[in-house]
Amino acid sequence: MDRFEAMRTLIAAVDGGSLSAASRMLSIPLPTVSRRVADLEALLGSQLVVRTSRKLLLTEAGAAYVVSARRILEELAESERAAAGEYRSPRGELLITAPIMFGKMHVAPIVHDFLDAYPEVTVRLVLSDQIMDLAEPHIDAAIRIGKLPDSALLARRVGEVRWVICASPAYLDRRGVPISPDQLPDHECIAYEGLELWRDWSFAGDRGEKTVFIRPRYSVNTADAVIAGAIAGLGIACVMSYQAAESVRAGALRSILDAWAPVPMPVQIVHAARQHQPLKLRAFLEFVAPRLQRRLDAVGEVFQAEGSECGLRQGTPKGKLGHPS
Domain spans of the chain? Predict the structure, then answer.
């Protein structure tokens, strides 16, 4: 019996909730998973798990053993990384996650340059809008948007983004420019939603926070499709600033209701705290952080300029735009 493989199999079963989940996760037959767990229990002379029809439960001995097994496997992986030279020069594989559209637009181009600069490092970039646990499957770093929950993770702030309300110049010429969120229900709007409805848009102005419920004429479940609909003149859209920046810069969209913009959300690179940080991860953080910050600064400048121009077009000081009548 390979004790390390048996440990990995047990942990996969516990994390997945069943032996079948471990079989899928490790791409090994279910009988192999069952045999490894049984062999481990025979070796230890103690029952580690209780198999029910719905899930796998740890015994008291099993819970204590899994804690120790996780620590042993992590120390083993750390030793293997050291032996492979990851602490002498940047080399090896990095697993990085990021939100889908943000990753496509801003993270992937920087990763391309990083790979050119560090030929001995490989990168697996996983784009997902789901928050993934960095402990499984050993994610090295994640780019996350929004306030982070309290945790033991280390975070490096690289900028901020916010929700923006925008529409095409043709639509605004045809229907007029709303100066208050209260006017949005009378406008054609584009909703960013899939099977679940999301029709409440939040705002924050000098008079406090406000939520407005829209009646969309068009709904779609990807941000790029929302922006395409707005450019086509289908209505007013609510998207993230980084998603709309290029279209606003090109004049295809105009940002409106800027005085009612919600509080910006931080963009941060997060990673686990380690006693010995691999050089590949340190190189990635030092390479990506300043470049991502410059990109986000450029996004913010687009909307600062747009807000100033919008105030001039309205004939109203920027600080007064958007107050309810």
Answer: 3-83, 92-160+265-300, 163-264+309-320
163-167 vs 236-240, strand pairing mode: antiparallel
User: CA dist 100 to 30, 108, 130, 264, 294, Å?
Assistant: 33, 10, 9, 19, 20
Q: Which residue has the tokens 């789901």?
A: 130
The sign of the CA dihedral 26, 31, 36, 38 is positive
pLDDT, tens digit, 9 for 90 and up, residues 59-93: 888 888 888 888 887 777 767 666 665 556 678 89
Q: Which of 68-72, 115-119, 168-172, 291-295 has the lowest mean pLDDT?
A: 68-72
Rounded CA separation 308/226 (Å): 25
Q: Which CATH number fits domain 92-160+265-300: 3.40.190.10, 3.40.50.300, 1.10.472.20, 3.40.630.30?
A: 3.40.190.10
